[in-house]
Amino acid sequence: MSIRENFSDADMDQWLNDNRVTEIECLVPDLTGVARGKILPRAKFTRDRGMRIPEAVLGMTVTGNYPTEDAAYDRAISNTDRDMILRADPGSITTVPWAIDPTAQVIHDCYFADGTLVDFAPRSVLRRVLKLYADRGWTPVVGPELEFYLTEKNIDPDLPLKAPIGRSGRAETTRQVYSIDAVNEFDPLFEDIYDYCALMNLDVDTLIHETGAGQMGLNFQHGDAMALADNVFYFKRTLREAALKHDMYATFMAKPMAGEPGSAMHVHQSVSDAATGRNIFSQADGSPSPQFRHYIGGLQRYTPAAMAILAPYVNSYRRIVRHTAAPINVQWGMDNRTVGFRIPISGVEQRRVENRIIGADANPYLGIAVTLACGYLGLVDQLEPTPMYNGSAYDHLYELPQGLPQALTMLRQEDRLREVLGERFIDVYTAIKELEHQEFMTVISPWEREHLLLHV
């Protein structure tokens, strides 16, 4: 379900008129999940929806640079700096509640001049995976859970982040997991967030305090994969804006603070029969189906090779450490939060898998696309999972790459993921991440100065 289900161009025009919108933010999620695009006056948007922005906007690192010496990247993205054509998705239109004047925001899809989707755009990658499911008569159902930190404003990147001061006038110094009072410390902020989400028609659910100092988590109602990716994309933007209004930062870095747990985007996932709506993970007698096992088998087989997408930055791998509330392997278990793939206790129709490996820093479109792709390959190849894990999987061996270079090598070598996600996407994505890692390696950390400067 989109934010506004079954909206047409005419419905979108009427909605803009009814809400007296004066300008429109035309958004394109890039590979990092950043909102790119243009801001148009209402009249211009009505006359000319076929806006154009350079194709290279989807080929940038998080620092705004471009790979210059990568042959596969050069084959994928034109060196003439040509334009993409943007077309609004009417169902994604919503208000910008923090704007002074009546303003709308709408997510756009990217097309080449010949009318085909730009295949390395994040929404296009997710559409490609969803079509594979649709061609088999299946419909994925997902439910993201997004963790994040609130911090004091930090205008000097050389300084560590600190927990923000709440209404008591004090910052957190002890573990406050699931504490209602700790959430209430930031009531004015969360009241704004819920108000903003209601105005935007974002279907958010439970808010909790997570383990870390100033770390929160928010659940989304389960539903259509594209709509939920849109919701996460919008929510990240909304939360950052609300936090700034209250003189603090909100961050989705995977590991923003030393000594504190990292932040994840857990994604609950199941698959329905498109014709009947039946959950294919359960048999008629209520027992787990072979497809349920195959799906888990696919997640186990292909997730290690997909880690460069699920953990997309150097910082992401600081979260994947033993005994830090994050999985280090691809084991699966019943109601076990130490494994990579948890099976929550549920009814027959709600049988699902929770992928706990994905970082909060992952692009929501790509994170959802990749976990669905891994499960899809398990279904079609009828892969069998390992035996269910009992006990703490933190004591099990590492089964995931422990750094971005290793993850990129594994992604490039996995032909089945390349086939499902798209060759040009893999070429563009890995080239960008390779350059980001090179940029990171030019920076000398405080740890190196502290321990190596006078000791080696």
Automatic annotation (TrEMBL):
<dbReference type="InterPro" id="IPR008146">
    <property type="entry name" value="Gln_synth_cat_dom"/>
</dbReference>
<dbReference type="GO" id="GO:0006542">
    <property type="term" value="P:glutamine biosynthetic process"/>
</dbReference>
<dbReference type="InterPro" id="IPR014746">
    <property type="entry name" value="Gln_synth/guanido_kin_cat_dom"/>
</dbReference>
<keyword id="KW-0460">Magnesium</keyword>
<dbReference type="GO" id="GO:0006598">
    <property type="term" value="P:polyamine catabolic process"/>
</dbReference>
<dbReference type="GO" id="GO:0004356">
    <property type="term" value="F:glutamine synthetase activity"/>
</dbReference>
<keyword id="KW-0067">ATP-binding</keyword>
<dbReference type="InterPro" id="IPR027303">
    <property type="entry name" value="Gln_synth_gly_rich_site"/>
</dbReference>
<feature type="domain" description="GS catalytic">
    <location>
        <begin position="119"/>
        <end position="375"/>
    </location>
</feature>
<comment type="similarity">
    <text>Belongs to the glutamine synthetase family.</text>
</comment>
<dbReference type="GO" id="GO:0005524">
    <property type="term" value="F:ATP binding"/>
</dbReference>
<dbReference type="InterPro" id="IPR036651">
    <property type="entry name" value="Gln_synt_N_sf"/>
</dbReference>
<dbReference type="Pfam" id="PF00120">
    <property type="entry name" value="Gln-synt_C"/>
</dbReference>
<keyword id="KW-0436">Ligase</keyword>
<keyword id="KW-0547">Nucleotide-binding</keyword>
<protein>
    <submittedName>
        <fullName>Glutamine synthetase</fullName>
    </submittedName>
</protein>
